[in-house]
């Protein structure tokens, strides 16, 4: 007589326990992520300045944003940073992955060395590169101490070149991560296809160009999406390395948003710039998710 009751009890627990365990994190995500996105979107249409103000202002904050010269400097810097950072990290990562895929000696040690920067935060990376690129402490001083007194490397304090120091630090941090992704993809390619191509007389570069790299298309798209996301929301690296300077020459949209919302008393403009960043991320993520869902539906 007790068996059906016990079975029903286990069935209830099996059905509801996972939902109860996941419910708190689901509610917190709903409130503190999507709830604040909606709140920020509303603030971008209000007259908010130092503190939130719910007086409706229409598109006034967006007009102010688009008339702000500093915003367009941040957008131009984002384009430069994204193109060089994503292209450079993918190029270096693919080359390193192909070299390591030749099963060279000390592969494990080399892979660890290239992956090590990924274990550091962007704050640590930015601070380290700030010391390296500081004309009074880093490379320039070292070269002067060695006798090369005419050597100059002042990108960190040059408003025309400061954004490229951010690119250098970003590449150093992320190239190992890209290498690991592509190396895993390369190790997943069927060896029999490569051996068949070698028997047909195809050269190694041709095999990689015509067979291996096209097989890595999912890895390429995943890497592209991750790096694009990192580029658009980059904040800590800029703050640690250049602080957005000299002046605001190395500002990115994330540092612009922080400055407007929390230090210059223009919360509405900051909220509008945050919404523009959200739209940029959505423009990358939504087509990717749509293509993946469509693929799963057809599969």
Number of strands: 0
Instruction: Compute the separation of the termini in Å.
Output: 47 Å
- Report the order of strands and helices: HHHHHHHHHHHHH
Main β-sheet description: none
User: Which structural category do the helix and sheet elements fall into?
Assistant: mainly alpha
Individual helix count: 13
Poorly predicted ranges (pLDDT <50, ≥5 residues)?
none
Q: Using only CA atoms, what is the Rg?
A: 25 Å
Structure commentary:
The chain contains 13 helices and no strands. It has helices at residues 2-43, 60-66, 69-100, 107-115, 122-133, 139-145, 162-187, 191-199, 204-215, 217-232, 236-241, 253-262, 267-298. The chain starts with a helix and ends with a helix.
What is the element layout, followed by pairings?
Layout: H1 2-43, H2 60-66, H3 69-100, H4 107-115, H5 122-133, H6 139-145, H7 162-187, H8 191-199, H9 204-215, H10 217-232, H11 236-241, H12 253-262, H13 267-298
Key features of this structure:
mainly alpha
Task: Summarize it.
The chain is built from 13 helices and no strands. The protein has helices at residues 2-43, 60-66, 69-100, 107-115, 122-133, 139-145, 162-187, 191-199, 204-215, 217-232, 236-241, 253-262, 267-298.
């Amino acid at each position: 007589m007790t068996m059906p009751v016990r079975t029903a009890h286990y069935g209830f627990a099996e059905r509801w326990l996972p939902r109860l365990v996941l419910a708190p994190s689901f509610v917190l995500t709903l409130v503190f992520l999507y709830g604040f996105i909606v709140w920020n979107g509303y603030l971008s249409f209000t007259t908010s300045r130092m503190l939130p103000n719910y007086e409706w202002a229409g598109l006034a904050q967006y007009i102010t944003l688009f008339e702000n010269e500093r915003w367009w400097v941040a957008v131009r810097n984002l384009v430069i940073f994204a193109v060089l950072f994503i292209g450079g990290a993918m190029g270096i990562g693919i080359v390193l992955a192909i070299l390591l895929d030749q099963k060279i000696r000390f592969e494990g040690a080399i892979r660890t060395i290239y992956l090590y920067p990924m274990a550091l935060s962007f704050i640590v990376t930015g601070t380290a590169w700030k010391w390296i690129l500081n004309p009074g402490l880093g490379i320039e001083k070292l070269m002067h101490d060695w006798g090369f007194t005419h050597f100059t490397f002042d990108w960190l304090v040059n408003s025309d070149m400061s954004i490229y120091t951010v690119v250098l630090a970003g590449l150093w941090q992320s190239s190992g991560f890209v290498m690991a992704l592509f190396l895993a993809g390369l190790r997943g390619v069927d060896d029999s296809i490569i051996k068949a191509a070698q028997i047909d007389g195809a050269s190694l570069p041709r095999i990689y160009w015509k067979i291996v790299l096209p097989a890595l298309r999912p890895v390429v798209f995943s890497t592209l999406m991750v790096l694009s996301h990192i580029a658009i929301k980059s904040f800590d690296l800029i703050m640690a390395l250049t602080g957005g300077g000299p002046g605001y020459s190395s500002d990115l949209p994330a540092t612009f948003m922080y400055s407007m919302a929390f230090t210059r008393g223009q919360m509405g403009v900051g909220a509008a710039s945050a919404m523009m960043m959200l739209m940029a991320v959505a423009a990358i993520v939504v087509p990717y998710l749509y293509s993946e869902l469509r693929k799963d539906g057809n599969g």
